Amino acid sequence: MERESSASGRQSCVHPLDHAGLLNAFRVFCCLALGAILFSCSSPPPAPSETAPEEVNALPPRYIIVFVIHGDGGYLYHDTDGNKYRADEEAVNSAKIVAERNSQAEVFIFHEKRKRHFLFLFARHDGEFYYYRNGRLLAQESYWRDHGQFRFDPEVELYNRFRAEEHSRPKKFFLYLGHEIPEMDGTGYDASYKDRSFTVPDLVDGLKHFTLDSTKFDLIALSTCFNGTPHTIAALSPYAQYIIASPGNLHLSYFDLHPFEALDVGLRDEDVSAFAKMCAHQSFERLTKDIQTEITVAVYDVGRVQRFLNSVDSVYDHTLTTLKDKASTSIEHCDCAEDSAYLRPAMSDGIDVFYRPARFGRSTHKQDHSGWECLRLLK
Amino acid sequence: MLGKTAIRLAVMIFVMSLAGIAQGQDKLQNYFSDAAGKVKVTTDPTQKREILNKSFEKMSKALNTVQGSPLISKDDKAGIAHFKVVLKEKQDELAGLNGYDRVSDAQLNDFADYVVQDMEQATETVTISLVALLLIIIIAILI
């Protein structure tokens, strides 16, 4: 009986179509499939620009900003009114405003998106690139994130293809916004690429290629959780004068991009150190209004923290080796000052730490933070 | 009847799994955000506590159920165990147990926000597979 009704059901779907109908249906399907392939492989047309290229080129960029915004993971968060936001999409919008409001900046925005399929079959691009010069969007391209031997190969290729010739030494900024960049393992960082790993050395490799001309970034900002560690800061040191990072488990997309909207004002005195502190302070102030969890934002003067980094380098490496095979649930983060192996008299020299303890939980009485985060086995 | 429910559950998991693991994390975060929303529209502190307690208990039961399931991997079980510890801390703090000062009536709205924000951070650091996440949410909703 069940078989009959099933067969009858199937028949009722097919019967109304004659051969011509089937052929038409097949053609429609082919058109759709072709359309999907073209849609998934083509780049959006270049954005219209009201400024002639020669006019845009006339002003040499005083600032170069590279944004890498990771969106291939869980980036949902709620504000205190219960409104939902996608941290990566919010960050892309803020980065575009930064790009539009700086009339003498060259801005590269890379949005690493989740891989999606059209009709469950046709893969769509998982990277979106925006290129702005002097406040104008000059190019927008979709790209594949997994094309290349190294993680940032597609981004570096686009960066080299579009960047303007440097006439004078511009101020250079690199901002990474995403989840904590792992110091070990790193598989599962991308929701779309389960087997692909992303770790601090991958970021370092990308930075190496972004700075092939041997000029360091004036400022690197990591809008991620837990990357204010001796290992990460040491690894990034060859590529930055100053680094902003959080040693804590911060709320997603903590970094406030507003100071970047007027670089001519913020960097009037060309004082990157003061600008970095202002950015960190503003992010901290914004977060303290609504966030109940711990807030820690730190600015590292790369030259001045080297002494501490050298003194703990081998200890930290040993910890990483020891914890390598442990389950993530058996490892916890802690202020390095709470671990005697890292405790040094001047361990916070060269760091400006903006800290407020969580308003609830076990650490409400912790009144300061060294600015360094370490790992240890859960007690 | 049981067969139909199982098929529905399987279809639900399949459809939701197409959206990826982030979808499971989103659902988990929405769960606590919804509870916080309810706390804030209530003026009576006793009711606020009740809402928070109920949300913790339902989630705790769901975590126990999923943790005991034979479908769940060893890694998931460890992830769920860690998540339970995080949740238990919140329950203890609300009630003033295990060394915590009881959350005062005046702080209940802020505490509800703290739970949402801390759980949003916890779901990023605790690795639980999509299937387990979806099972937790479905069971928490059904309880």
Chart the SSEs and their pairings:
The complex is a heterodimer of chains A (379) and B (143).
Chain A: H1 2-14, H2 19-41, H3 53-58, E1 63-70, E2 76-78, E3 84-86, H4 87-101, E4 105-112, E5 117-118, E6 122-123, E7 127-133, E8 136-143, H5 153-162, E9 171-177, H6 200-210, E10 217-223, H7 230-236, E11 240-245, H8 263-266, H9 272-290, E12 295-301, H10 302-323, E13 331-335, E14 351-356, E15 373-377
Chain B: H1 2-18, H2 21-41, H3 45-67, H4 74-95, H5 108-125, H6 130-142
Describe the protein:
The complex is a heterodimer of chains A (379) and B (143). By secondary structure, chain A is an alpha/beta fold. Chain A has helices spanning 2-14, 19-41, 53-58, 87-101, 153-162, 200-210, 230-236, 263-266, 272-290, 302-323; strands at 63-70, 76-78, 84-86, 105-112, 117-118, 122-123, 127-133, 136-143, 171-177, 217-223, 240-245, 295-301, 331-335, 351-356, 373-377. In chain A, helix 6 (200-210) links the parallel strand 9 and strand 10. With 143 residues, chain B is mostly helical. Chain B has one domain. Chain B is built from six helices and no strands. The A-B interface holds A 73-78, 80, 82, 84, 114, 120, 179-180, 188, 191-192, 225, 249-252, 290-293, 327-329, 358-362 and B 18, 20-22, 25-26, 29-30, 33-34, 36-37, 75, 78-79, 81-82, 89, 93, 103, 107, 110-111, 113-114, 116-118, 120-121, 123-127.
Number of helices of chain B: 6
Which series of helices and strands of chain A comes N to C?
HHHEEEHEEEEEHEHEHEHHEHEEE
- C-alpha termini separation of chain B: 18 Å
Beta-strand content estimate of chain B: under 5%
Largest sheet of chain A: 9 strands, mixed
Query: What structural class do you assign from the helix and strand content of chain B?
Result: mainly alpha
Global geometry of chain B: globular
Average predicted local confidence, pLDDT of chain A: 85
Morphology call of chain A: globular
Percentage of residues in DSSP E strands of chain A: 15-25%
User: Segments of chain A where pLDDT lies below 50 for 5+ residues?
Assistant: 1-23, 28-53
Q: Kindly state the number of beta strands of chain A.
A: 15
Helix content of chain A: 25-40%
Distance between the termini of chain A: 63 Å
Q: Any idea what the radius of gyration of chain B is?
A: 16 Å
Number of discrete domains of chain A? 1
The SSE order of chain B reads HHHHHH
Structural class of chain A: alpha/beta
